[in-house]
Amino acid sequence: MGSPDDEAGAGATGRTVMSSGRHLGGVIxxxxxxxxxxxQIALPLIALLQPPPQEFGFQMYSSLGxxxxxxxxxxxxxxxxxxxDRIVAKDRPEIDWLPLLPEAICEADAAAVSVQVEQSGRVRxxxxx
Length: 129
Description:
By secondary structure, the protein is of the alpha+beta class. The protein has helices spanning 4-13, 20-49, 84-87, 101-108, and strands at 67-73, 78-81, 112-119, 122-127. A hairpin with a 2-residue loop joins strand 3 (112-119) and strand 4 (122-127).
């Protein structure tokens, strides 16, 4: 607050006197808003510059591609797994299937001795128990 003379002078000219605490709150609010705007620009930009797909990036769901799986039976013959929807609800291309799908195929196909899963040039093979 100002002195009585300041308040009287402010009232006479139609201006209001702002305390320094109110001014500091305005500066902090402005800085917070600018920081949020910078984050909204920086996060997608950083993700866009890294190899896709990246969380928070524009290409978030576009890069992994389809998955193929092959089982090898006891006779040594290879059999492509064509009905992945029976094992997983939907074989969506944006999901990374390599960590868990081979084990799920082994559980679903009792005749499989080994399983090989390929997605976007990456391959994972396991031996079934």
